[in-house]
Specification:
about 350 residues; alpha/beta; Quinone Oxidoreductase, Chain A, domain 1; 2 domains; seven-stranded mixed beta sheet; six-stranded parallel beta sheet; 9 helices; binds NADPH dihydro-nicotinamide-adenine-dinucleotide phosphate; NAD(P)-bd_dom_sf
Length: about 350
């Protein structure tokens, strides 16, 4: 049973050798065990996994604890049930949810897993558009941003797992949509494939405030925040009266010991802007509503989903580290088996 274990808690940017690819004995379901044995098909790389590579579990209601040294990492994945001692799961079921970074996983409490019922779409989608990132984009955009037709929407980390969906949802709502991303290739993807009205490479802009002013001469109504830091400071100066900022994440702050201070917060007051954080886990009860909404759009080709898939557990440490270097183009996944 090949696995990826945590060797040490990373300092700053995680490094590949903070993890190790190793093997454990073959797993089988013990007699009388009430859990299940999974074969993992796809593993998902998500920025929140950095927060679990610490000695103290971060607050925020994650349904799991931080990783322990010499134990497998964990995260979201798509898996097949190989054996089950749990009444709700049977051999052959396909599921998505939290699993370990191993070929096979023994899961004592499988209750949080969600069964996959629609298999006419790629299975990998259940770690992306049909999984946690999809629910994040759906809840964050529709619940927190209250979009109306014609509004101006800005999204950072726009080509990633969540951002690319928020942009497409905003277009479906009749908004004007601009995204920022960290390379020319990503900017082209946003404009050519994902239907954004405009996009820019934030690494090439000397003055982010001016870049946003150029893209939004009338200002921003909705900002979907994925990165924090300098981008947020520039956005605050470009917000319109009664704008909304959904704070999904701030990846620029995940590898620093102490968060950067953010300037320009007084803009919230003078412009009556609402800024609100959220956790997708609080919205999972809307999952079937989300599927009813998104599946027809996928089947009709009205929503695209860009994935960046590497193969095998040996590629897993580098794929995870790559999220914090912007190496991933679209949703970062590790394919283990069909
Ligand atoms: P992505 O697929 O977008 O991958 C991360 C991307 O972030 C990278 O590709 C890179 O893109 C960008 N990035 C990395 N480091 C920096 C930096 N220092 N400054 C600016 N950009 C950076 O990830 P997700 O779509 O999965 O996640 C996006 C955000 O959403 C994250 O903040 C994540 O924590 C958050 N999130 C929050 C959830 C919630 O419930 N609130 C749930 C899921 C995700 P680029 O090349 O464009 O720089």
């Amino acid at each position: 049973n090949k696995q990826v274990i945590l060797k040490r808690y990373p300092e700053g940017l995680p490094k590949e050798d903070d993890m190790e690819v190793t093997s454990s004995a073959k797993l089988k379901l013990p007699d009388g065990y009430g859990g299940i044995l999974l074969k993992n098909l796809y593993l998902s790389c998500d920025p929140f996994q950095r927060a679990l590579m610490r000695q103290v579990t971060p607050s925020g209601g994650a349904p799991f604890h931080c990783c322990t040294i010499d134990s497998p990492l964990f995260g979201y994945g798509v898996s097949k049930v190989l054996d089950s001692g749990h009444p709700d799961f049977k051999q052959g079921d396909l599921v998505w949810g939290i699993t370990t970074w191993e070929e096979y996983t023994l899961l004592p409490k499988p209750e949080t897993l969600i069964k996959i019922l629609h298999t006419d779409v790629p299975l990998s989608y259940y770690a992306g558009i049909l999984g946690m990132p999809g629910m994040t984009a759906y809840a964050g955009f529709y619940q927190l941003c209250n979009p109306t037709k014609g509004e101006n929407v800005f999204i950072s980390a726009a080509s990633g797992a969540v951002g690319q969906l928020v942009g497409q949802f905003a277009k479906l709502s009749g908004c004007y949509v601009v995204g920022s991303a960290g390379s020319k290739e990503k900017v082209e993807l946003l404009k050519e494939k994902l239907g954004f009205d405009d996009a820019f490479n934030y690494k090439e802009e000397k003055d982010l405030k001016a870049a946003l002013k150029r893209c939004f001469p009338q200002g921003i109504d909705i900002y979907f925040e994925n990165v924090g830091g300098k981008t947020l400071e520039a956005v605050l100066l470009n917000m319109r009266q009664f704008g909304r900022i959904a704070v999904c994440g701030m990846i620029s702050q995940y590898n620093v010991d102490e968060e950067e201070g953010v300037r320009n917060l007084m803009q919230l007051v003078s412009k009556r802007v609402r800024m609100e954080g959220f956790n997708c886990l609080d919205h999972l009860h809307k999952y079937s509503e989300y599927l009813d909404f998104v599946l027809p759009h996928i089947r009709q080709g009205k929503i695209a989903y860009v994935e960046d898939i590497v193969h095998g557990l040996d590629s897993a440490p580098s794929a995870l580290v790559g999220l914090f270097l912007g190496r991933n183009v679209g949703k970062q996944l590790i394919h283990l088996s069909d």
